Amino acid sequence: MNRWLEVLPFLAPGDSMRTFFSMSMFVVMTGLLLTSAGCGVDTAGPGKAPGAVAGGPPAVAGPKTYPVPPPDTSLSIDEYLKAGMPAPDREWHSVDMETADRILTSLTTTDYAALPRFQSSRSGAMFDRITSRDNLVLFKTDALPNELRVPTFLAYYKSHNEIYKRYLSGYIQKKVTVNELIELSGSTLRGSALLAELVNQFSPPLDKNDPNFATRSQGLTQAKRGLAITVGGALTMVSDTQNSPPSDRKRLLAALDETFPVILPELLEASQTEIVTRLRTMSQSPDLQELQPELGALAEKAKALTERKKPTP
User: Fold this and answer.
1) What is the pTM of this model?
2) Residue 203: helix, strand or coil by DSSP?
């Protein structure tokens, strides 16, 4: 019996699946948003340099250019602290992420430029804390009672979800950059992997004769679909050649590489096959050769992880 089913009695009906599925959809929305934003950037046609005219002499290909980032008018760390944000020089727990969500929601009521920015001299430390893997350490230790780890982490995860939503809106309004979305997507992948680990590790016994068994089984399937959607959205972002250079997208590849050992074995078989096929196609694409060797290595890793789960004939 898969232990993902057994965690659901901890939670109000549907809360965990709604939170998880909502988070996965934000990663997909990000990928679709970036793909849409890149449409029409290069009208020269396949194999031609930007600016080439159909039927005319070929233009000389110059260095690849990307959208100019909006000016950094984020707040200073002191200004965030005075507004009520938790301090960025320590780990954040669920109550801290909830506070950050509330404060950032208030600050962005008037201007999304108030959001902390990645690698900003003004607010970089605050952004780094929002996406820090160190925040997850508490949920991996016995500092919390076992029965509280999943619901407490879900509260953290839900608030992270809402902050991601703020950044998506900010990106649409051209107040933040794709770099923030890349980092938040990586953070989402790490959170998804931890949630899978927690649910598999801590769960009360489940009776197959439980009248809620069918509902929990349906919740399990939805959770696995959410995981697949999260990975698919991240791969769409990695494939986007119009909005960020390979060096930035490689950071998201690193997050996929870090989380695949946990996430891929949890997926439904068809989703596993889809991701392996997609990665193989991506690794052979001329447009993505600047992501090598990391992309090819990830494709091989995905293949090995999914084959490991299948029984030998």
Assistant:
1) 0.82
2) coil
